[in-house]
Amino acid sequence: MAVCYRYARSREDAEEILQESFVKVFTQLKQFRGEGSFEGWIRKIVVNTALQQIRKDMHRMKDISFPDNLEVPGVHLSPSAEADELMDLIRQLPQGYRAVFNLYAIEGYAHKEIAEMLGINEGTSRSQYLRARAWLAKQLSPQLISHAR
After folding, report:
1. Averaged over 142-146, what is the pLDDT?
2. pLDDT tens sequence across 76-132
3. What CATH number is given for 1-56 in this structure?
4. Is the pTM of this model over 0.70?
5. Whole-number Å distance between alpha carbons of 124 and 100
6. What does the alpha-carbon distance between residue 57 and residue 85 come to, in Å, rounded to a whole number?
7. What separation in angstroms does the CA of 137 have from each of 2, 16, 70?
8. CATH number for region 64-149
9. Domain range annotation of the chain
């Protein structure tokens, strides 16, 4: 559920992705060849199911963007930020930005792989990741300052 929730806009969307993923797991169970872990195989199905949902909604991503001046040089996400707060902020990102951020920063995919998965070019993946990271940093900065007081 945690993997689904990182990609979804709401808990209901995450539950839908999870349900669809488990249907796929059970219908494709015979395809698991025992190469690698069963958990990893399931995780890949869940991520791919979430990405399919994002591709369906991709037209929304084109209409939603942050201003270009959101880059915040020298601001890095701090480990002192609470994980739940960070996840809440990630869920506030527009869907395309959220997908790229999750795939790159959390799942560990390369921008080239992300571009192929989402049907975008590599430069778009890079810029969406940087903008998502800058937006998150900007949102976290006031929180970190208030926590330090």
Report:
1. 51
2. 444 544 566 777 888 888 888 889 998 998 888 999 999 988 888 999 999 999 999
3. 1.10.1740.10
4. no
5. 9
6. 25
7. 22, 30, 10
8. 1.10.10.10
9. 1-56, 64-149
